[in-house]
Structures are given as structure tokens and as C-alpha cells.
């Protein structure tokens, strides 16, 4: 099993007059862990619900393993969406829910489920609706991981879990993914803790695509600079600063934009250290809405096209895409 890939083309999903997904085109590679990032109300749950066939597109296509998931038994048997609510039988004992999932899901691992119940200190005799919020989330994570679906989508499943539980969840996810590769989508607006898990990142805002690319590429879209404040300021002069921290006389800034050829030499001369970009800072920057949260770099509304978007519909960080006349698009040259 290496997982189902996802192809979304010109997808629009409306709730009455409210457009939750607004012309989305993106791919989620099979056999990867993808972070689906976006601010509140950006359309993450709606997109995932459409892929899980909980909802029909208003127009456009959302294909899972090359097929429309709607009333598609094969695709649905290999697709699992766990939403924040847990998506499990609320009035059943946890053990009974696991019995049910075990019968319904071909790759379900009872052994993994029981190991994770122990990890999260969940009593199989307890009923889901009597659990605390964090324990409910943990049980959702147990079901989502143990189902080992070809397309596993975990929609902010860690909400309410305490830090030790969250880290146990991340470890369990990575360990099981390495042993049983599949397509995993983790939706989140809390990035710092989980960005190390992502191989691929999709950022959406207002139901439209801001960015879809390998996480390693995302990390080359900026850098952090650490050192004495005045040296950091000199190094950063003229660059787009999207994050800043100060500890005594030491400063750290996050810069957006590709590294320059002489960065290493300048860093040595000035006595500052360069490091990988802080993805959280990058996310805040990319999703900053003009006039709402402040726009450190003046690039609010920035849109980045996936490299295979021939129409350049959403613009491009390389400046090659046709951002068209959309006034919200700012192109940043490489
Ligand atoms: N059942 C619904 N009826 C009407 N509007 C809805 C419904 N569900 C979502 N919406 C609207 O669709 C938009 C996208 O919501 P969605 O839940 O998909 O976003 P999200 O990115 O998952 O948000 P969050 O991070 O807050 O969970 C929002 O404007 C929301 O108000």
C-alpha cells in the first residue's frame, strides 16, 4: 500500500451564498504526509469533507486515486477522515467502536489501536461521550491511525490534547507511517509543532490556493538570522522581514525571499548565524490579510502557484505565472 493521491481541479464548494472553496486546483501526492494549512474559515474542513464524499462539489472536480469519491465504494473503503469531533460513535464503548471499525476497514490494525489506547490512557470500556475533550481527540487519532487507510485525513485532530499526548500522537504517526506508507493529510493552523512531519505543504486562504509544494522547497523560501541586534539589522537591510524576536542584545529575524549568493560570506563578516526559515512565521506572512493582522513585508495576499499550474492561474513566487489583473496578487522576484 502506498496510498491514494488527490487531484483537485477548479473546485468550488458553496453553502448557500457562502463560498467555502473557491476555484481550488492542487495535487496531494500519494504516499506523503501533507500539511493542509490555513487560517480559521479558510476552507480546510470543507475540502477534506469533499474528498471524503461527505459533501458534493458545487462545481469542479475532487478526485481520489483518480476517481470521484462520491458513492464510490472502492475509494471510500480506502479513505478515512477524522474531524475535530472525533467522527466516532459517541454513545458506544471505545472497544465496541474499534470492533465496528475493524469489521469495516480492510487494513485496520487492532494491535496498533490497543497499543495507542494504552499510550493515551483510554479505557476501552468508557463511552466516547463521557471522555474529556482531549481524550475524545486522542480516540479520534487512535481510530484514524489504526485504520491505516490509503488516504488518511486528520482534521485538527490534536485539538484539546495536552502536550505529552500531542507528542505521543506525532511519534505514533511517524513510526506507523514509516512502517506502512500511505497518504496522510494533517490539517492545522498550529504549525510549529507539526511542521517537521510534513513532506508536502498546501496553504489555502479564503478557499483559494496560496501555496502547494514540497516542504523542503518551502523552507528555502526564507531564512533566519541570529546574532547581535545591530549585525542582524545590517544583514537584513532591504530584505522582507516576517518575524522578529529579541532576547537581550541578541536578535533573531525571519526573512522571506530566496537566499542571496553572498549570504554566507556576509553572515561570516557580520558575525551572524543563518538557519532554516521558521515555517510558522512564513505561514503568518503568507496568510496575512491587509489591514487585519498587519503586513510586515507588504505582500499580503501573496499567491504561489504549484509548479504544474500551466495557466499560472494563481501567480507564482518566481514571477513567471500570470497573476493577471488580480490586485491582491503580489509577485516577488526570486
Ligand atoms: N455547514 C456549513 N454551513 C454554512 N457555512 C459553512 C458550513 N461549514 C463551513 N461553512 C463556512 O465555510 C467557510 C469555510 O469553513 P471551513 O470549516 O471549511 O474552514 P476551516 O479552514 O476548516 O476552518 P477552521 O480552521 O476554523 O476549522 C467558512 O466561511 C464557514 O463559515
From TrEMBL:
SUPFAM superfamilies: P-loop containing nucleoside triphosphate hydrolases. CDD domains: ABC_DR_subfamily_A (cd03230). InterPro entries: AAA+_ATPase (IPR003593), ABC_transporter-like_ATP-bd (IPR003439), P-loop_NTPase (IPR027417). Coiled coil: none annotated. Residues 295-334 are annotated as: Disordered. Keywords: ATP-binding, Nucleotide-binding. Residues 312-325 have a biased composition (Low complexity). One of its GO terms (molecular function) is ATP binding. It comes from the Bacteria. The keyword Ion transport does not apply. Residues 6-231 form the ABC transporter domain. PROSITE patterns: ABC_TRANSPORTER_2. SMART domains: AAA. PANTHER family: ABC TRANSPORTER, ATP-BINDING PROTEIN (PTHR43158:SF5), SKFA PEPTIDE EXPORT ATP-BINDING PROTEIN SKFE (PTHR43158). This is ABC transporter.
Amino acid at each position: 500500500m502506498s496510498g491514494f493521491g488527490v487531484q483537485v481541479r477548479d473546485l468550488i464548494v458553496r453553502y448557500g451564498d457562502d463560498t467555502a472553496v473557491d476555484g481550488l486546483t492542487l495535487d496531494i501526492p500519494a504516499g506523503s504526509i501533507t500539511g493542509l494549512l490555513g487560517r480559521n474559515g479558510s476552507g480546510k474542513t470543507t475540502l477534506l469533507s469533499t474528498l471524503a464524499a461527505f459533501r458534493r462539489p458545487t462545481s469542479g472536480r475532487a478526485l481520489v486515486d483518480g476517481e470521484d469519491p462520491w458513492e464510490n465504494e472502492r475509494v471510500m473503503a480506502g479513505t478515512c477522515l477524522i474531524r475535530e469531533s472525533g467522527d466516532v460513535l459517541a454513545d458506544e464503548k471505545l472497544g465496541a467502536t474499534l470492533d465496528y471499525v475493524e469489521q469495516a476497514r480492510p487494513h485496520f490494525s487492532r494491535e496498533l489501536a490497543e497499543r495507542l489506547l494504552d499510550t493515551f490512557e483510554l479505557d476501552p470500556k468508557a463511552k466516547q461521550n463521557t471522555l474529556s475533550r482531549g481524550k475524545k481527540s486522542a480516540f479520534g487519532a487512535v481510530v484514524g491511525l489504526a485504520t491505516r487507510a490509503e488516504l488518511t485525513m486528520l482534521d485538527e485532530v490534536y485539538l484539546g490534547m495536552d502536550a505529552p499526548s500531542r507528542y505521543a500522537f506525532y511519534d505514533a504517526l511517524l513510526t506507523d507511517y514509516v512502517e506502512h506508507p500511505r497518504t496522510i493529510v494533517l490539517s492545522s493552523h498550529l504549525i510549529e509543532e507539526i511542521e517537521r512531519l510534513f513532506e508536502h505543504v498546501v496553504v489555502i486562504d479564503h478557499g483559494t490556493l496560496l501555496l502547494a509544494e514540497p516542504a523542503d522547497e518551502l523552507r528555502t523560501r526564507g531564512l533566519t538570522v541570529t546574532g547581535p541586534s545591530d549585525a542582524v539589522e545590517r544583514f537584513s537591510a532591504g530584505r522582507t522581514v516576517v518575524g522578529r524576536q529579541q532576547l537581550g542584545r541578541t536578535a533573531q529575524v525571519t526573512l522571506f525571499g530566496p537566499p542571496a549568493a553572498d549570504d554566507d560570506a556576509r553572515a561570516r563578516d557580520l558575525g551572524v548565524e543563518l538557519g532554516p526559515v521558521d515555517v510558522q512565521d512564513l505561514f503568518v506572512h503568507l496568510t496575512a490579510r491587509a489591514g487585519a493582522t498587519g503586513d510586515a513585508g507588504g505582500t499580503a495576499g501573496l499567491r504561489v502557484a504549484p509548479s504544474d499550474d500551466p495557466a499560472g492561474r494563481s501567480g507564482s513566487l518566481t514571477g513567471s505565472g500570470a497573476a493577471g489583473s488580480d490586485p491582491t496578487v503580489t509577485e516577488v522576484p526570486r
